[in-house]
Amino acid sequence: MLKKEILAMILAGGQGTRLKVLTKKNAKPAVPFGGKYRIIDFTLSNCSNSGIDTIGVLTQYQPHRLNAHIGIGSPWDLDRNNGGVTILQPHMKNDGGNWYMGTADAIYQNMSFIDRYNPENILVLSGDHIYKMDYSKMLKFHKEKAADVTIAVIDVPIEEASRFGIMNTEPDNKVYEFEEKPEKPKSTKASMGVYIFNWKILRKYLVEDSKDKESSHDFGKNIIPKMLNSEFSLYAYPFEGYWKDVGTIQSLWEANMDLLNPENQLNIHDESWKIYTANPTKPPQYIGNTAKINNSLVVEGCSVFGTVNNSVLFPGVYVGKNTIIEDSVIMCNTKIGDNVIIRKSVVAKRVTIRRNSVIGNSEEITLIGDDEEIKSNSIIK
């Protein structure tokens, strides 16, 4: 039997309803981000850079684009015979089959995949967060503490702590209490949804949880509180760095804008920790003699003849003459005509915006969905 020290399972089946039209035909982890990436690229790149070579990606809602993007894992050096990346979707078994009913149930339904590699530890991750993290350092912490469970935590402002699962810990980071979205949080150590479990122990709890008809089959609501009550050794691993759950249009826009800050902690230009992706075959960008570009990401395949300020342009975007784009995210293959004004907007893929139109109002974020056509002289605020 194969033996792995650690195996990663990425939960990537979320519908992401708060991203509205961006997830109408797309799983949340497959939503475009940062000019050339998809959200899941950050988790996959973290695994690759951390030396984790065996990964299961659990998909469910609208999986086709996500599956096509991951393929056999070549961009992340995960196209391997022994390990690599495997897409795991709900499937029929001898006793029938169900959709994944929660985060814990998703892992439970794929125990046979995990058992194939006989791992000592299992790393459970979310596929819809933007961050860079060396999981090998977390594994080292996990082993040094002789922990049964290690939960990555990030310090959040006390006024935001009630939005998260909060860890209350001893001075050595041992967890003595876990509170799911408490009204009056006792600490600011928020769970990042990044867990390392001893697989033998977790496997036992997953089997027991599957038989509990009252359970939500969720790690935060069920598995972790039960393990804590059983006096297993749980530790909080403190993470310092950029981390963002891009689960809303506001947070997705903010994360894109963060990339334009030269002091941002994420730093996608870091050669020592590259973010890998499947690159489109596009010609070089073309910047016309009437173009003005300031503090923006403009990637391959773009043609710009207007003004672009503090914005992110994805491959294949066309910007017409006398057009002004400010504080906006313009996704793949969108065509913007002449004399258009776009401010503080997220414009999805393959949108056509005809001449003399005005999109956005510089206050609230304006969202335009895939394949929409905005007629000439339109005003959308």
Question: What do you see in this structure?
Answer:
This protein is an alpha/beta fold and 381 residues long. The chain is built from 8 helices and 30 strands. A 7-stranded mixed sheet has the order 5-4-1-6-11-8-12, with helices on both faces. It has a 6-stranded parallel sheet with strand order 14-17-20-23-26-29, with no helix packed on it. Strand 2 and strand 3 form a beta hairpin.
Q: What does the main sheet amount to?
A: 7 strands, mixed
Estimate the strand proportion.
25-35%
Stretches where pLDDT is under 50 for at least 5 consecutive residues are none
Global structural class: alpha/beta
Straight-line distance between termini: 60 Å
Total E-strand runs? 30
- Report mean pLDDT, rounded to a whole number: 94
Number of helices: 8
Radius of gyration: 22 Å
In one word, what is the shape? elongated
Order of strands side by side in the largest beta sheet?
A: 5-4-1-6-11-8-12
Helix content: 10-25%
